[in-house]
Design goal:
The protein is α/β, with parallel strands linked by helices. It is built from 9 helices and 9 strands. A 7-stranded parallel β-sheet has the order 3-2-1-4-7-8-9, sandwiched between helices. It has a two-stranded antiparallel sheet with strand order 5-6. The longest helix has 27 residues. The chain binds nicotinamide-adenine-dinucleotide. Nicotinamide-adenine-dinucleotide binds next to helix 1, helix 4 and helix 7.
């Protein structure tokens, strides 16, 4: 799809991988709506790229419906959805004090997996109503998993479960939406330098970066955005989960 002039929605667009993607889409001429829990940051990024910024919790069905309606009224139904909203959580199954609290697990799955499905179902409906473009394409959906979906570390049961769910829904969603000309793709990033990662001590960040075989550093958000743009532009790519990780494989801890 040529993204020029097309309406796009980026969740988690106020920070990190989503922000870089929102900027890349806007630079290529897309009309971008940034959806994020962080209202001020969403407005700031949107203001800088000439887009629309909306505060919304993607786990809230009616609030997300309202945000997508606002985006539709401003830019028309979105042909592009990039889901980057997510949280990195850590908790062992059991620790010294007893079993892990259940609500932590449920919350991680609610944001990373149910939230992704929530925006996908709403945007896919909008896309199905649009006129087809060249090749019969109506829409492009990109969801963000993680390499932790495949080799989760100790303490990552919730995160890995949520991200493997995101990876797993790629094919059934792509198969179902194929008849509408809507593609569904997924990126599983390795270790990227974003505010999510900046929460870790500098020596841990450096150590994580040096574990990547090549290049021996953390990924740059712009490198994630560049892959999203390539995927958007290549209509033959569909139903696939692509690792973007410099060849790294996570160790048990
Ligand atoms: N940074 C990495 O190394 C890395 C690696 C693998 C996967 N990922 C995934 O990439 C995605 C983007 O991560 P990032 O590194 O850019 O993190 P980030 O923290 O910089 O950005 C995530 C954004 O999502 C927003 N968000 C969180 N919960 C939300 C909710 N309920 N509703 C709306 N917005 C919400 C946050 O406010 C934040 O702006 C996440 O899904 C993350 O799990 C990141």
């Amino acid at each position: 799809m040529d993204v020029q002039g097309k309406a796009a929605i980026v969740t988690g667009g106020a920070s990190g991988l989503g922000e870089a993607t929102a900027r890349a889409l806007a630079k290529a001429g897309a009309k971008v709506t940034v959806i994020d829990l962080k209202a001020e940051a969403a407005l700031k990024v949107a203001g800088e790229i000439g887009g629309l910024g909306l505060a919304c919790d993607i786990t809230d069905g009616p609030a997300t419906e309202a945000a997508i309606k606002t985006a539709r009224e401003k830019h028309g139904p979105a042909r592009i959805l990039v889901n980057c909203a997510g949280v990195a959580t850590g908790a062992r199954v059991i620790n010294r004090d007893g079993p892990a609290p259940l609500d932590g697990f449920a919350r991680t799955v609610a944001i990373n997996l149910v939230g992704t499905f929530n925006t996908m179902r709403l945007c896919a409906w909008d896309m199905s109503t649009l006129e087809p473009l060249a090749d019969g394409e109506r829409g492009f959906i990109l969801n963000t998993s993680s390499i932790a979906a495949f080799e989760g570390q100790i303490g990552q049961c919730a995160y890995s479960s949520s991200k493997s769910g995101v990876a797993a829904l790629t094919l059934p969603a792509a198969r179902e939406l194929a008849k509408f000309g809507v593609r569904v793709l997924c990126i599983a990033p390795g270790l990227f330098a974003t505010p999510m990662m900046f929460g870790l001590p500098p020596e841990v960040q450096e150590s994580l970066g040096s574990k990547t075989p090549f290049p021996q550093r953390l990924g740059r958000p712009e490198e994630f955005a560049a892959l999203v743009m390539t995927m958007a532009g290549n209509v033959m790519l569909n139903g696939e989960v692509v690792r973007l990780d410099g060849g790294v494989r996570l160790e048990p801890k």
